[in-house]
Amino acid sequence: MEFYNYIKALHLIFVITWFAGLFYIVRLFVYHAEAQTKPEPEQSILIQQYQIMQYRLWYIITWPSAILASIFAFVLLYLVPAWLQQDWMWVKLGFVLLLYAYHLKCHFIFKDLQSNIVKNSSNFYRLWNEGATLILFAVVFLVLLKNAVNWIYGVIGIFLFSILILLGYKFYKNYRERKN
Known about the structure:
The protein has 5 helices and no strands. It is an all-alpha fold.
């Protein structure tokens, strides 16, 4: 049982660092997009620095954390295969697939920004940053409550939380525009 606890702890540590990487990489996307509007030489200096920061974060923290979190998750499922008989676990795995889709989309954005191809505004990236937050809320509540039936209430709560995030974003955007 102690081996299980070590594996669970490692899984949680790498899930946390994975999410930290996802939260911060998108924040760097925001800064990179905003640097496009700066005059030279400030623009070039900022973009070069953001590209270095993005590269290091993505390949030294975020990708390894995603892979290690998944490896330890597979070990946990091997140790407790009965979880695969429970509905909540299948819902959780669905959210994990959604998280990997989010991660891969971030990877495509990262690759574009490494070539200084900025396809979206900083406002888009601010909203995009909330995607990982919503997945995190869903997974944490699902794992702690271990009830796939009540996850519908959780989804409704996440939807309402999303509306609050959007309202907060609009408020913040208006505040920044008035301030400038």
